[in-house]
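thread: overnight batch results

M.L. [08:02]
morning all. the overnight job finished for the chain we discussed friday. pasting input first so we're all looking at the same thing
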Amino acid sequence: MTVRRIVANIATPDPGKARPFYQGLLGLEIVMDHGWIVTFADVGQAAPQVSFASEGGSGTPVPDLSIEVDDVDEIHTRAVAAGFEIVYGITDEPWGVRRFFVRDPFGKIVNILSHR
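M.L. [08:03]
and the structure it wrote out:
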């Protein structure tokens, strides 16, 4: 038996509100849209992962999602310009990532990161 993927499901009365953040900011493509559910994805392959945490590191709250990108500084600049709430400013962490936390349209804290 092999786990092929893990999908985060976020409850919301208006799935379309995800477009400006997940498609506009992060550049994910809509791969499924039934009105009641919209799924965003990238063409890249990644190993399925799930994390359990007592804090988000460096004394931060545990983020609801973590999304690794190739250029965290570019996404940070775009998030600020788009007016998304930055919950934790862009930081080089001692465990080798550069990251920031941003609040999505549903109030979820999203950890946007790149490995150094």
